[in-house]
Amino acid sequence: MIxxxxxxxxxxxxxxLFMFLIAVMRSGIGLVRGQVRKSExxxxxxxxxxxxxxxxxxxxxxxxxxxxxxxxxxxxxxxxVSGRHTRFSTLNDxxxxxxxxxxxxxxxEGALIxxxxxxxxxxxxxxxxxxxxxxxx
Length: 137
What we know:
alpha+beta; Tumour Suppressor Smad4; about 25% helix
């Protein structure tokens, strides 16, 4: 009789463990699905500039620097662009545009920026004759 009670107890314990694991997996999958659906990325699209750059679209995951030096993420080989001209970075859920002390300046929506400035989707950043459109996707 004790053998049957122990077997029943073991089977009940195994069933409870499986139910627990299934519940944990369902909640974990739900969290991952929710994160994927809600995640939006800031994007940079080059609208005007050198022919080979037009239409290039980048997702801003890490800070992106624009400049003439080969160490920049977006290299613009033109005299009006400083070696490290502009930086795009995210802060919480905002996109920040920052002029890095360039000679000719960085313009956000036609206004010269002097300090890190928050950008909105649809804004246009001007670096010389290169236009970069900010977006969300």
